[in-house]
């Protein structure tokens, strides 16, 4: 009986061995990889950043909401950027405005409604529905008096082009939208980004892209894709 008892004790010790348990235990304790597509931050200048704010690489997108080429880029590039780069934390995307007209400014201010967490959803919705509200913008004729405030003028645009209705589907009421359009600090941030685009970054049109601080010659997803850092295996 002694040899059998010894064998059973030895087998029990092996079964509890940390060497044998280590792979399974480590696997069970391993934390899931962080999905950086859910992380949104704002820069000191008021631009919005999607992804790991400390990522090794950064893509800056200068966009205009009245730019059809920007809408095409967002439709084609957003999915691949999120799954191929942003989710892994290797690259963050920073969106900056280069406003071209009063409709663009109205949309830019409404995109910021609801705080940073809602920005990219608003941003994508404005581009996804661009054809519908731009059609109304082309037919828009101001009905306000010449001395109407800038905020009132933009509210009239938002009302009559369907931007308020679009934002309401995003959880932003018209009253909240009017408050965003009257936000003087937000207006100045958007104008400052526009000035920076032209005066400092050398941007001449939208969409334009900076990769790790360097202005590229790409203006669409096909041109930008080869300029991005290699994705990890």
UniProtKB/TrEMBL annotation:
SUPFAM superfamilies according to UniProt: Thioredoxin-like
Domain called Thioredoxin-like fold: residue spans: 44-227
Entry annotated with the keyword Signal: yes
Signal peptide extent: 1-22
Entry superkingdom: Bacteria
Keyword tRNA processing: no
Alphabetical keyword list: Isomerase, Signal
Listed GO MF terms: isomerase activity
Family annotation (Gene3D superfamilies): 1.10.40.110, Glutaredoxin
UniProt name for this protein: Protein-disulfide isomerase
